[in-house]
Specification:
Length: 544
Amino acid sequence: ARGSRAASRAAGAHNVCRLLARRAHGFYARDAGVAHRKNLGLLREIMCQESTKFKNVWTTHSASPIAYERGRIYLDNYQCCISSIAQEPRILYQKPKCSKSEKIEDALLLECPLGEMLPSPSDYKSSLLVLTVQNWLLRLSADSGEILEKIYLAGSCCKFRYLSWDTPQEVMVVKSAQNKLPAAARQAGIQQSALFYLAVFQVLPLSFTGMLEINKKIFGNSVTDVAVSNGILIVMYSMGLVRLYNFQAISEQFMEQPFDLGHEFNWNGQVGVVGKYPFGLPCNIKITDTPPLLFEAPSLENAFQIGGYPWHYIITPNKKKHKGVFHICSLKDNALAKNGIQDMKCCSLEPDWIYFHPDMSGRIIHVGPNLIKVLKLKEVKNNADQMEVAEDFTIVANRENCENNTVTVTASGRVVKKRYNLLDDDPEQETFKIVDYEDELDLLSTVAVTQIGADGKAHLDFRCNEHGILLKSIPLLESWDVTFSHEVYFDRDLVLHVEQKPNRRFSCYVYQMVCDTAEDDECSSHEKTERVFCKKGGRIFEYI
């Protein structure tokens, strides 16, 4: 009996140690993250069932661009916010029409970080960071539009226009438009060395890291654009050159003095409060010498991407004749990977495109008019120092009935020869227009379109991200004109189609997941014609 009890205690201790080890690695059966992942797995299974449908539950139109962020649809330059979760449109807030001086130039959704203590209860809810035309950075409640924080960036010396993430949900970058002197000033011989300004912030709580000037005396006259991403300062040049610098090293080396938002400062003879009108933010990172260069590469139209494992980059050789040709090279030594030249040889109006897969697998997605290639990097056999590009899987457009014959015979027996061949992206042939990845459900989504005459038909397909197997296809009911601009958002159980028509007319079609019965199927065609129009908040909605 003693032996059995000792063995039982030993087994129990072993199980406890194993449980603690699993906890240390993030595995715990009752952990909220585990439950969340299980729920998303169930949602994916339900979504891919044959009986599950996606229905166009409501539609609205706008004279200004329509934006979507995490279940919220923004219209009228972010003055109106509508929940996309309900089957009927529900307006979360509607603000009075703003003046031109209050126009919002750009916006980012800010979500609460997990496991951190924040200074204000409002910080634990989603908010929207917006940049106005008058250089104000505002943090708004995502659900009410209430202003939570307000920061003045700068006076008339520059116009800030763009928001982006350096590190998503952690470090934000505010970029100015390129400074250009008026023609009269240039003719008068006035010189201006500042090209761009970048202001960097930590978020939640919002804190000022620093502002720097991209100066032609340091970086050269031919700079066309700059960006900060993942701690790297990226500088692009008109001759197709891309240069990378360590942004953190630049901040540490050239920071003249740190500043905190809301604190008084005395800077270059100016006395004021950091982030308040009329002084704004001081330009406290002064680059006085060319910083050490991390990397540079010539690429057509400054197209440059880094990803994969080990690190690789994708460029197009800097000659127009190479447009549509992509080189995949090692970041370590610039060596071209085996099979690293990817060329679909498309004959199309719209070019093919390539990018690293956003699922962090290190794979590469190459999209052409009728073909999607998912590529992977792997070691060359018997040579561990070299990598090769291999196909993981391919997706082919359905063009079974589209034969491109150059010679046809009429009913009378007359032979007719075509003087031209169809383009690869001819609208009468099924063509891929959008490829996206739903990270929470681990699904690859593709939009393919066929347009005959004025009537275009599109369908959204869900595919297994690992093997590309088709799991579900959803027809989009509205006509798809290939000459218009389109965006399709797939977010869990929601599909949103935003269309821009000529003369700045925008339409938003909201599809939601429903589990249909046979009775629903019988009346579905009736529902397509029986639609209700209602007016909410001065806006007309069309829904079932």
